[in-house]
Amino acid sequence: MSTTDPLVNVINHPLVQHKLTLMRRKDASTNSFRTLLNELAMLMAYEVTRDMPMQDVEIETPLESMTAKMIDGKKLALVSILRAGTGILDGFLSVVPGARVGHIGLYRDPATLQAVEYYFKMPKEMPERDVIVVDPMLATGHSAIAAISRIKALAPKSIKFVCLVSCPEGVAALRAAHPDVAIFTAAIDRQLNDHGYILPGLGDAGDRIFGTQ
Ligand code: URA
What we know:
This protein has helices at about 15-25, 30-50, 85-95, 140-150, 170-175, 205-210; strands at about 10, 55-60, 65-70, 75-80, 100-110, 115-120, 130-135, 135-140, 160-165, 180-190, 190, 200. It is an alpha/beta fold. Uracil (URA) binds near residues 197, 201 and 205.
């Protein structure tokens, strides 16, 4: 699926696409799936943080003083949707090590596919922070929508949503529920199946990250 929506960003970088293909293969080991997810998350973090505000700072190099650039403002808040968000979180933290981290625990009721919350812990001073919510799969969109609604109640400066694989149904649902939230994804796959899995997808991201299949 291609999209002209300026808030839906498909990251087509060759390294991202190559690694995603390796992850999709059913014979990828748990170890390689996890390693690839970590590498992919680092590459995606580079794109997602492209518009972070900068400030000028005065520094001394060994040769002279100069005005140089640094990232401005309060530390980013990365919010991982448990449990599969952890896989992306680790890669983001390798690139943005000072970020603060929030967790939201949601599981999908297998009958209704609705998100049920069991854990919520966010960094302090959320109104001064930009937030990046991470979850590898944007399927029905229920978890992402529920997580973002909870985070919005804390009035952060901005929210972005990052996933590895999405589908037209999930993208449409999230855009409708939270039109102000930009989506970053490495792929928009064909469709959801009746069990809420993305086709062709990569299977259950949590099981593949943690080897719990
Ligand atoms: N969650 C997953 O882990 N995989 C899917 O395909 C959909 C939701």
